[in-house]
Specification:
Blueprint (H helix, E strand, L loop, with lengths): L12 H5 L9 H17 L7 E6 L4 E6 L2 H4 L6 H13 L11 E7 L3 H10 L3 E6 L1 H7 L11 H7 L3 E3 L4 H15 L4
Parallel strand pairs: 3-4, 4-5
Antiparallel strand pairs: 1-2, 1-3
């Protein structure tokens, strides 16, 4: 009996364009990277308008992700999940902060229902968000799914600090680029 193998990959441009040696010591620099990942994903026609990156608390970039749902035929291939999988593989652990270090997820847009749950199970200590879910739903056809009414409180009760609206207008602009690139009128 052969075993089924599932493999997801980031686009090749990620290795050429992402500087893993650079330090990202501020929330704005981390968000700028997440937004640029989303923009590049559109420009390269390699997936949807979402980008995410995971950093150690000292600003070291550990992993990145971009939306790969359509090219990989996988509804779970969201930017945050792709970043979690890369970070978990690099650390050899399903829970990132199990090593006692602190980890930050910067995401160009507020996590959807699936990525929200994955965020606290993956072991992050801080979540930095660009665009809000209402921005995503206003500017695209994406349905972000239901979240608890106090979703930020739920994360904070799990010791995950939440920062919203970081470079929000730049994050919103990604969806204007996406619409223009796809020739979609909303």
């Amino acid at each position: 009996m052969s075993m089924l193998r599932v493999e997801l990959s980031l686009p090749e441009w990620v290795e050429r364009e992402v500087d893993f040696t650079r330090s990202y010591g501020t929330p704005e620099s981390r968000m700028q990277l997440a937004i640029e990942l989303a923009r590049s994903n559109i420009r390269h026609d390699s997936g949807g308008p979402f980008g995410a990156a995971i950093f150690r608390d000292d600003g070291q970039l550990l992993a990145v992700g971009v939306n790969r749902v359509v090219p990989q035929n996988c509804s779970a291939a969201h930017a945050e999940v792709m970043a979690f999988m890369q970070a978990q593989a690099r650390l050899g652990s399903f829970r990132l902060n199990q090593d006692g270090q602190r980890y930050i997820l910067a995401t160009s847009s507020q996590p959807c229902a699936m990525c929200y749950g994955a965020s606290f199970w993956a072991g992050i200590d801080a979540l930095e968000i660009g665009a809000r879910s209402e921005d995503v739903m206003e500017l695209s056809e994406f349905d972000e799914g239901p979240l608890p009414a106090d979703w930020t409180g739920e994360l904070e009760r799990r010791d995950i600090a939440v920062s919203r609206d970081l470079l929000r207008e730049q994050a919103r602009d990604v969806f204007h680029l996406y619409r223009a690139h796809a020739g979609v009128a909303y």
